[in-house]
Amino acid sequence: MTLADVARAAGVSSPTASLVLSGRGDELRISQPVQKRVREAAADLSYRPNIVSIGLRKGKTSTLGLVSDTVATSQLAGDMIKGAIEAAREHGFMLFIGETEGDPETESALLEAMHDRQVDGIILTSMFTRTRSVPAVLDRIPTVLLNTLPEEPTSAPAVVPDEREAGRAAARLLLDSGHREIHLIGAGPDAQDVPPDTVAGVERLAGIREVLTGAGLEPASGHLCDEWLPPQGWRATNDLLREHPRPRAIICFNDRLAFGAYQALHEAGLSIPGDVSIVSFDNYPLAEWMRPGVTTFAIPHEQLGRRAVELLIDAVQNGVGTAPGHVHRLPLPLTSRGSLAPAQPPSPHGRPTHASG
User: Fold this and answer.
1) How many Å apart are CA 347 and CA 210, to the nearest integer?
2) Is-above-0.90 flag for pTM?
């Protein structure tokens, strides 16, 4: 059914029917009986207005696009999409989601398709925080980068977790509990000892080292893992135990590494947190189910998605948002569980705590 069919059934002109159905009948003083006839005719004919056409006339379509690598179908980042969708709905926008599975050609096609369909703005996001180039097509439309940082200067703001501050907080948490011998599983001990292409690794390690250096300490040891998965955590912890049979405290660079560390410590007859305290990052679902549960800094997925949408809508509606190219860093809240305990004084036969200087 078309608008002309509705107008014909109501006995009015097409412009009059259009004004009534767009909610402008009272504004233009169209009589209530006429408005009622138009609405009843539209209902009887099951007429649905062409939203895209209306949007093109108004210059806005109240739609946003989100293009990701794998984030939309990842269990770990489902809350990121949830936050984005809810924020869009609260502001009267619809969010279209597309995935590239890391394929540049698919990404280019999705971005062009969303641009051709006149979405008002686009969010470009990644599953894991990383640095990447921003496609030139996004220069033509309001854009926000979510969980990704630009390789070159760009006008698009970015929304990412504050990984460096989380690293600082992890180190402070152990220091405040009296620990001075702190081992690292996943990266370190030196600043360049990080897996390739990992923003989280670089920034978490920088934050940890900053706080330890400020306390006159260095990491007691560091064990770089190319992949942050349980088998790598298990192997790295066994390497640690060969050099330091009685470690006091460990920072794991994510919860999957912590799972492997738990296994290795258990096999070595060491208890958590009685013998070894562990602090980690990400708050994966498994962190709650480990025994004891892992004390970890949670990635604020839902808040990241929500903030990205709010920034994008601000740019769409007002023409400008916050400072172009500004990086918005959201804090990682601490989830305290049972893997951290105050440091115990060394036994008469134990090793002294590790400190630099």
Assistant:
1) 29
2) no
